[in-house]
Amino acid sequence: MIDSRALKLRALNPARLACALLVFAVAAPPAFAVNKDMVQLQTQVQELQEAVARLQQSNDERMGVLKDLVQQNADSVNKMSGMVETLQKQMLKQEETSTGKLDQVSGQVQSLNDSLDEVKARLNSMEKALQAVQGQQQSINATLQNMTAPAGSTPGTGSQTTGDQPAAQPAPIADAGKPSADIPFPLNQGPPQGPPQAPSSTVPSTAGAPAVASLYSAALRDFMAAKYALATSEFEQVATTYPGDSLAGNAFYYMGEIDYRAGKFAAAIKDYDHVLDQYPSNPKIPVSHLHKGQALLSLKQRDAGIAEFRALIQRFPTSPEAAQARTKLNGMGVPVAVKRPT
Predict the structure, then answer these.
(1) What are phi and psi of 178, to 5 degrees?
(2) What is the C-alpha to C-alpha distance for residues 146 and 27, in angstroms, rounded to an integer?
(3) Per-residue DSSP letters for 198-232?
(4) What residue ranges do the domains of the chain occupy?
(5) How far apart are the first and last CA of the chain?
(6) pLDDT band at 260, cuts 50/70/90?
(7) Which residues 6+ apart lie within 8 Å of 273 measured at CB?
(8) Which terminal Cβ of the chain has fewer Cβ within 10 Å, N or C?
(9) Of 230, 289, 225, 295, whose CA–CA distance to 260 is shortest?
(10) pLDDT tens digits, 123-151
(11) Residue 275 carries which DSSP code?
């Protein structure tokens, strides 16, 4: 077998052997080159994966930082919201407190005004009574001026005249109702001989004046004592019996107050309108505006109530009622003055 192979190798052409060797030499290098490129490609892929991993890790770290910042901002916003809410509650509480104090002061002022009205009514009644007494005194003085002594006798002597004695002089007339220094009052003090002189025209008529003042005082006392049914009937009597008196305007106002406290807002508005329309110079005009506006708000008539508050502020800008109206409008978020288009 060995000899046969050796013989075959020897039989090969040297040219063929050279070609075979050349082909082998040429074919071998590409196989090694392909393996090197694959290794290099794998290395690059591995490096790329590592870079992507590092980038992902960096992004995760940055996202964590951003999340922390966002959480901190959210906590800060929540704290600020809590502080703002607390501040709003404090402001609202202060506003309610100030409003309550203002309402309390207004109630006290109103009570003082009521007491002052009662005192005024009593003074008015006393003044009217004094004027009546003065009128009666003037009437008595005028009557005394017309009175004369009886003819034919000398007061205080009791003797009669004779033919030898001169006739008695007539007794002097008392001056302005006062007895003279010479004679006392006449003994005969019957009715005057002539018609009595009418009272002076300068004395005002006092008919009904004490009655309205007394009735109003009684009604006001019943109102202060919370006897609203009785006070209402008395105020109605004042308003209907003496509609031209200034106390009638006060009576309408207090009837409105009674209706307002009873929840009869529509009736209260009508009572306040009586004061506003029929008694423009009444001192209850500002508070009638204020309480009418509050009654309108209670009836859900927001625009009408706002208009009433603005009318009060415009007519009486320096009054305590105007200050309360401004507080009400500010609490409602409504501007005090109407913005006119430019």
Answers:
(1) -105, 140
(2) 173
(3) PPPTTSPP-TTHHHHHHHHHHHHHHHHTT-HHHHH
(4) 2-81
(5) 127
(6) very high
(7) 292
(8) C
(9) 295
(10) 776 777 788 888 888 888 878 877 754 44
(11) H
